[in-house]
Amino acid sequence: MEKQGKGIFFSLFMRPELLICIGVLLLTALGSVTGLFEKLDLRMYDVLMSVKPATPERDDILIVAIDDASIGEMGTFPWTRDILADALIRMRELGAAGAVFDIEYVSPSQHGIDPVVESALPQRFNESEQNITGLIQDLSAAVARGDLPPAYVPETAEELIQSYVAPEFADLQDAVVGKLARDNDLYFAQAIHFFGNTWLTINAGDMGIKLSKDLEDYVRSNMLLNNVTAPEGLIAHENDLFLSQQHLTRKMTPALLVLLEQARGAGFTNVVLDSDGTRRRIELLHETEGQYIAQLVFAPLLDMLQTDTLVRTPKTLIVKNALYPGETNRVDVSIPLDNHGRMLVNWIRDDFRDSFKNESMLFLHDLDKKEKTIVSILQNLAGFRLGKDGNMLSYYAAAQYLIGVYADLQQTKTLLLKDTSKPSREDERYTNYFERRREFFKDCAELTDPSYEKEILDVLDEITDDGNAAEIGEIKESVSDKFAKLASYLKEYNSLFSELEGLYANAICIIGHTASNSTDLGTTPFHGQYPNIGTHANVLNTILNKTFIYPLPWYAVFSFFAVLIFIIVLFDKHINMAMLNIIGASGILAVPISAIILIQFGIYTPIVSPFLAAALVYIGNSLYRFASAEKDKTFLRRAFSTYLSEKVVDEIVNDPTKLTLGGEEKNITALFTDIKSFSTLSEKVTPVQLVNILNEYLTDLSNIILEHQGTIDKYIGDAIVSFFGAPITVEDHAWQACVSAIRMKQAEVLLNNRLQEAGGLPMPLQTRVGINTGNMVVGNMGTDMKMNYTIMGNDVNLAARLEGVNKMYGSWVLASESTWDAANAGAKAGTLLGRRLDRVRVMGIEKPVQLYNIVAVKSEASNEQIECVKVFHAGLDRYLQKDFEGARKLFQTASRILPGDGPSEVFASRCTEFIKTGVAEDWSGVLTMTTK
Predict the structure, then answer these.
(1) What is the spatial distance between Cα 784 and Cα 794, in angstroms, rounded to a whole number?
(2) Residue 20 to residues 14, 17, 568: CA-CA distances in angstroms?
(3) Which of 20, 51, 686, 796 could disulfide-link to 620, CB 3.0 to 4.6 Å?
(4) End-to-end alpha-carbon separation of the chain, Å?
(5) Helices (H) and strands (E) in the chain, counts
(6) How confident is the model at residue 7, as a pLDDT?
(7) CA–CA distance from 473 to each of 384, 448, 460, 463, 485 (Å)?
(8) Mean pLDDT per 10-residue run, the chain (932 residues)?
């Protein structure tokens, strides 16, 4: 019983197919564990991402790009920080909801020039010049008039210097020193507060910058998260893996303290690179001494969602009580994470320039430039004094008013920038300030009314004479130019402002470097060069849209396929091709199934290891089957190639089930051969000679049969039994059999010559052939131990009888009517030369059979053969009409055309006999054979 159990175990579990399966599954699992297939999985992930529906883009995400155009206009990056400060101020006016900087400001910058002081300096220098010049002129005049004796000049001059000139220069120095230079970091910080919802950076790695205690304390108190619930050490362990992959040291590097103090918050900029350098996923939290830095856009997003708690599990990050924009109910949002705690980014498929709202920083700068130009024109108009009848023209008051309003707005802006005591988004003064600016530009538009320009030109015309015409003409041209430019720049300003306002209003702006010389570029699943600022935009888009990708671990999918494959192989003891195809198909189908799951449910299933497992099991078992089959095929070829055609052998090799016992009825053609006077030949040679002669004879004739897709049934002494049309179906089997017979007779001539020349053949070999076509039973007959692929049936017997009937006619190849009709039909019609003989009733077969003598392939026949057959048929017609005299003449003529033609001689002799004896009244020409 124990031996029987072991036998069952070995037969079930130690089969080569199962061992191959187990080996492949173990090797595939090992490859997955060691990361061998990681890059293949990543590439397949990219393919799946490309077939899923496009990710929707939110219209409240705006990328503000420091691109080639803005650098070309504004200078090489990095810029002085006042440029980005001005951009922030302008963005606030345009209605931007938030600003996230993907630029790290971790070191102090150099001071710059205060543009307000710079613009006021020319006027201040002019005033000082006028004051000092006036004092010098007064002193000179007093000396010239004699009012001041020369002896008192030095004393008076010293008094003027001490009382007037020195204080004037002191005031001038005060206006320049300490005021002309501006702390751009402070100005940037003021602009950050001015904007009110600005987010800066904290690098999660050590950048080699020493942090002050004040900065570190401020960051820990104000910028880090304390509301994260997570398993002990989980996030830190994941962060360590990331840092090691990126070759970073754990130490946060935040932006400058002066900037952070005015920012709403900060997040880390570091992005995850997969092993192939592509950005597909992102960490959302970074642990630092029990607190957490949020990712760059995740930090402002948490603030926007007003969440109170984050809960981390091994596979998810749950944002509790989140209030999404435009919704009224708070929800818990579960963000799926991969094995290393990273969120898969659901990337926008479009190119960076075509994804999200994307605007160059240049346009903000251009808006500022247009504003400065407008103010400059107003200043020029306000400085142009022209009156009539003792009163200034109306344009002057309007220009002076606008310049005053603008100066007041600038002063308000300065006060707002300096006052950082209250959050700007909660300060009504900002709303009032922006409203006043809108009114200012509306009022500017009123100055473009044509009446102002006309009034000036009319007065200039009135004061024009011959002496000043040229000068007045230049003034008029300058005035018209100023009014035209004011109208043009106001129109451009208002148009650009409206366009930008449509982009920036309520937008979350992500500011970063995208120029072609930027090093902050990376690869995404869709693009080889993609600015990193776009990574943050895609992260924000994924979470706001909740279009998450849910990654399954590789082992979950692999385990399912492994069990499926193992069960198939285990319970299919003799695994056949159908089962192997199922295994192979399961691997192939893994790809579209995975795509469907991703499209329908957003679930990513790693399929490389299942696909490889299925493919390798399929290949391994196929190779094993092939090796095993080759042994069987070699045996079958050796066993059957000697009497079956190569095609027949191929079919048996490909389907050995054809060797099982049983037969089928099939329309085929049987061909029997026999050597004339074989007994006489046997008496004239030794047994050894006979065997040699017979072997050569049978070889030549057998090869012809095989060449024409025939099957050799058996050899009976000198006779060959063969058939055409089985086991392989041959559509023209009757024609092939007839041609084989013709080729046999041709080969027979060559064989006789060869053997006679060798001196080993006492008499020529002459072969008779009988051919019949009909329904015969063909198949393996015998026992399981010994069987023969053969044919049976009356139609087989008829072919054998026809071979013997040749003796009566002196013919060599006889075929039945069914053979002739089949061979002489379709595309092969008319290709054979044959003739009708008698209708005979052979022994054992009651139904008369029309006999045909196959003479030659018609295209190869001699003229004599063709003419002989033609005359013979004419004689046969006379013969069947009982005109034996006329028939005899024609048969004799045919015999003269083709001397030695047996059928012609036989029928001529028969006609002579019938002329003497006559025939019965009911004679029909049917001949009954009394011998085989």
Answers:
(1) 26
(2) 10, 5, 13
(3) 20
(4) 65
(5) 31, 32
(6) 42
(7) 15, 21, 9, 11, 18
(8) 44 62 77 78 84 90 93 89 95 96 90 53 61 69 67 70 67 56 88 96 88 93 94 91 85 94 94 90 93 95 93 94 91 94 93 89 95 93 85 90 94 94 91 96 93 90 85 90 94 96 96 84 87 93 94 76 67 55 58 75 78 67 64 62 61 63 85 93 89 92 93 91 90 96 95 89 94 92 74 92 92 96 94 94 76 96 95 95 94 94 94 92 82 58
Strand residue runs (E) in 129-244:
181-182, 198-205, 228-229
pTM of the model: 0.64
Q: Two tokens at 623?
A: 């190779």
Name the nearest CA neighbour of 809 among 738, 718, 909, 721: 909
Cα separation, 788 vs 721, whole angstroms: 13
C-alpha dihedral (462, 463, 468, 473), degrees to nearest 10: -50
Reported residue count of the chain is: 932
**514, 67 contact by CB (below 8 A):** yes
pLDDT of residue 176: 57
- Look at residues 248, 282, 269, 256 and name the one whose alpha carbon lies nearest to residue 203: 269
Residue 121 has, within 13 A of its CA and on its CB side, a CA count of 15
Question: Tens digits of per-residue pLDDT, 492-512?
Answer: 999 999 999 999 999 999 999
Per residue, the 3-state secondary structure of 57-117, as one string, reads CCCCEEEEEECHHHHHHHCCCCCCHHHHHHHHHHHHHHCCCEEEECCCCCCCCCCEECHHH
Res 821: pLDDT: 96
The token duo for 371 is: 């504003």
3-class DSSP assignment, residue 409:
helix
- What pLDDT is stored for residue 132 in this prediction? 72
Query: Are the CB atoms for 377 and 488 separated by under 8 Å?
Result: no
CA distances from 682 to 448, 675, 676 (A): 134, 11, 12
Cα 18 to the center of its chain, rounded Å: 35
- Cα Rg of the chain, angstroms: 55
Both tokens assigned to 147 = 């009012």
CA distance 284 to 267: 9
In angstroms, rounded to a whole number, what is the distance separating the alpha carbons of residues 704 and 742? 10
Q: Chain centroid to CA 222: how far?
A: 46
Measured CA to CA, the distance from residue 433 to residue 422 in angstroms comes to 16
Say what the pLDDT of residue 42 is. 82
Report pLDDT digits (tens) over 10-69: 444 556 766 776 777 788 778 777 777 778 888 888 888 888 888 899 999 999 999 999
What letter represents residue 902's amino acid?
A: G
Phi-psi region of 602 (alpha: psi -120 to 50; beta: other; left: phi over 0): left
Using CA atoms, how far apart are residues 474 and 454, in angstroms rounded to an integer? 16
Q: Which parts of 531-677 fold into alpha helices (H)?
A: 532-545, 554-571, 577-601, 608-640, 646-654
Between CA 30 and CA 514 the distance in angstroms is 42
Helix (H) or strand (E) holding 274: none
- Take residue 881 and report the two structure tokens written for it: 């009409």
- Distance, CA of 358 to CA of 61 (rounded, Å): 9
Phi/psi of residue 278, each to 5°?
-100, 145
Structure tokens at 334: 């579960």
Residue 80 near residue 186, CB atoms below 8 Å: no
Name the token pair of 270: 């570091």
State the residue for tokens 């970073």. Answer: 248
| 623 burial level (CB within 10 Å; 0-12, 13-18, 19+) | exposed
Given this model, what pLDDT does residue 5 score? 46
If DSSP states are collapsed to H, E and C, what string results for 589-602? Answer: HHHHHHHHHHHHHC
Q: 745-775 burial, b if ≥16 CB within 10 A, otherwise e?
A: bebbeebbeebeeeeebeeebebbbbbbbbe
